[in-house]
Amino acid sequence: MPRISVEDSGLPLPAPVPAVPLRLAHGVLKSLLGAWALAACSAEESAAVEEHLGTCGVCADEARRLREAVGLLQRSETLDLDPALRTRVLEGCLDRRPPRIPVPGWATAYDAETARLDALLQDFGDGEWQAPVHLRWFDGDAATSRGTTVAGVIAHLLAVDGLVASALGLDDPLDGAAAESRTPTERTETFWRVSRVPPTRTVRGPWREQSHAIVRAAAFTGSGAGTMGVSYGDVELALRDAMLDRAFECWVHAEDIAEAVDYPYEPPAPRHLHHMIDLAARMLPAVLAARRQAGLAAPGPGRHLVTAGDPGRSLRLEIEGLGGGEWFIPLDSPAAVGSAEREVAHVALDGVEFCRVAAGHVPPVEAAAGQAGDRDAIKDVLFAAASLSRL
């Protein structure tokens, strides 16, 4: 049985033992002032110091100065780390560390984005790897989506990055007949289908090894390799553009993953974002022409309206904020972006907003854009930008 408390026994409580004050020499008390200011003294020592301060003016002045100094050292805000601190530190390291292998400028965005995504994945547990993720893109004029997991997203990146790896002479993650799938969608669906079990956290190792190998191969092949062709099945991109495309998709899907696990994720560095926007702007004329041929965009002005001296119509795309700049998008033919043409419309968009339209994450009709001029041309270009997205 538990022992009976003295309070329940009816007996008088024992008298408290009176505390015996410490009697310390002046030198000892003066040496305790720093610890007292930091609240590091015992109760008896604090009582002795405080009693001494009432009679010694020199020690009282010293104690006041020490307490003021301690106040300057103390933080008034919470000591919890900022959730974005790790991201900022990693960005600073990636911006400042000299690479052991000189990476071509057109490959630095891919190098940085894969490293940022890998840092996000580093501390994920099994639960985060199986968190549901919704991949979104535009198909024609309608938004569509596909459900998968965090591990499934990394498997998707591994499969599509294999196109660049194959062009550089590296191993393709799809073996045998599966490697015949050329488009990103086909490769992803094939990779998911041939996997005996749903992707798990083990997919991170092969994906990161492949991204390292791609960067090393690009560095060793030299800057001239940027013109090498990379086939996406229905379109071919120069290696330098394919690397930008892969960097863009890595960032977009990293945001998908961060959203799924409720973690903050910042956009790419402005210089990298600018190159991604430039790639999208250069691809817009061909996409717009294909949409027009498929009946998804307004027809051109007609041959009888275009004379030999007519430079043709264009839309001025003004990108504000990160990665900003101006691009003139040809409307009547897939000519080179920026050629001298007659401006009939003007669209102003934030850089990150434009990229999210191009990724199929923001519907074109909901884009916060400043618009002036030909409304049909503006609509066609915004929908063409959304059509750049894919699984």
UniProtKB/TrEMBL annotation:
Residues 31-60 form the Putative zinc-finger domain. Residues 111-258 form the Mycothiol-dependent maleylpyruvate isomerase metal-binding domain. It comes from the Bacteria. Keywords: Transcription, Transcription regulation. This is Zf-HC2 domain-containing protein. The lineage of its organism: Bacteria, Bacillati, Actinomycetota, Actinomycetes, Kitasatosporales.
